[in-house]
Amino acid sequence: MTESRGASSGPLGIVAGSGGLPRRVIEACHDAGREVFVLALEGEADRSTVDGVPHAWCRIGAAARGFGLLRANAVTELVLAGAVHRPSLSALRPDWRAAKFFARVGYRALGDDGLLSAVVKELEREGFQVIGVDDLLEADALLPAGPLGQLQPDAQAAADIEHGLRLARALGALDVGQAVVVQQGLVLGVEAIEGSDGLLRRCGALRRAGPGGVLVKTAKPAQEQRVDRPTIGAHTVMLAAEAGLRGIAAEAGATLVLDRAEVIRAADRAGLFVVGVAAP
Amino acid sequence: MTESRGASSGPLGIVAGSGGLPRRVIEACHDAGREVFVLALEGEADRSTVDGVPHAWCRIGAAARGFGLLRANAVTELVLAGAVHRPSLSALRPDWRAAKFFARVGYRALGDDGLLSAVVKELEREGFQVIGVDDLLEADALLPAGPLGQLQPDAQAAADIEHGLRLARALGALDVGQAVVVQQGLVLGVEAIEGSDGLLRRCGALRRAGPGGVLVKTAKPAQEQRVDRPTIGAHTVMLAAEAGLRGIAAEAGATLVLDRAEVIRAADRAGLFVVGVAAP
Fold first, then answer.
1. What is the rounded CA–CA span in Å between residue A31 and residue A23?
2. Do A15 and A78 form a contact (C-beta atoms < 8 A)?
3. Chain A hits for B171, Cβ within 8 Å
4. Distances from the Cα of B213 to the Cαs of A79, A110, A193, B164, B205, in angstroms?
5. Which of A140, A164, A191, A233 is surrounded by the fewest CB atoms within 10 Å?
6. Which residue among B111, B159, B192 sits closest to A184, beta carbon to beta carbon?
7. Tens-place pLDDT, residues B217-253
8. Do the Cβ atoms of B76 and B35 come closer than 8 Å?
């Protein structure tokens, strides 16, 4: 956490989705002596995320209640952390405040990556300052260029990575997903709403004989970097190993690594490479 | 089957992959009094496909043996029918003739849709005439524009179809897949190597609350129409219903319908629409 952030009064507001990232942000704040208030999204955040931390639970569609909770807890600075399953309009049940937002951006934004940018703009319009997760985590939270662990891609894997990068960027531009699995030039799977974990879980059954494939992740070209960075962790490495992959390639300087030391240990133990690559 | 086809001497060669299409082609030939010889691809064609029909089994990578079998059975005219799981190079185990082919088109073609065009060219170079499945089936084998059964898409479904068509065409241009599932603007899944059946099987668990989604299939822009048309059958309708979808939209004039009457019955019974739409 940089010094300048400490200047803000009141606790940091953390809007918490699923996965381990929100808890990491909470711990980074604790280490830096910064108070937090967590707005835990129902059906998304884990119970363990908010253990022993000031928090309230809130439905995604209950925007008025969410804004009220943040203000009542003196939050002026906000971070959005963790994954959120995109709801359908029917599941969202928007309150008057959420409905007002959608009246402006259009309900079709629900299926659109532009939605996140619109949400950030809306939060800023309400007077909150929205910062990126990587401003709060340790300096090595972003994936550097080159291999993280002991292994490196061979020529076949490098060709698969190149193919995967080209595809992942094009798919990102279509606002579909940000990950693909490529094995010996064959596209085993493409991420949509199921997320990278879901993609990896089904690719094991689709693998072909011979050298295993590669998971390739990139940031979407239009991605709102403050709220939706591609993320990898030891969990990703384990799922990739279970799917018979040989490694993971992700966009250097744009991908969040959850606990780099743990990712390196998991990769070296499983015999996988994890490599930061430049976007095409 | 048109009259002009009857002029060709010798049996029609049918290179049979998986699914019900090869058997339909065999039956259409029987109805038209045309002899057939089936080259059944190991690991792909069903045993029931070749029941009571002159045939031989052949490994995909055993091109020399395949050519030999076709010639030994006096085949000069060929049709490729049914799906083929793309093998990795290791699984392919190419014989000298297949290796010669790949030496020309490059092994990377394995991951490329251009592969099918190259295979057709290679067959023609060997002196075979390759015809399209739809030249052999009844005149109503191609999906017409408009709804097939009693139901039609409503405004929400029409919006999902429009979104899906745009995506499916773009994905096709990337040589990934030719099908997507869209629900209320959300892209639930994108087809890659798992095929449309695999896509439908996983989309049930991904569905959101409210009106169900739509399966949208298009021909790839560069698709070799003689050998790899998008196909739907009663089986597709059943899987779509199980996934909680409200209907299927596919490219009119380019999609093969396996037994139209059966598809209509299945759709009306399950309460799904099946609609032929113009490509964007």
1. 12
2. yes
3. 171, 174, 176, 190
4. 33, 14, 13, 10, 12
5. A140
6. B111
7. 998 776 666 677 889 999 999 999 999 999 999 999 9
8. no
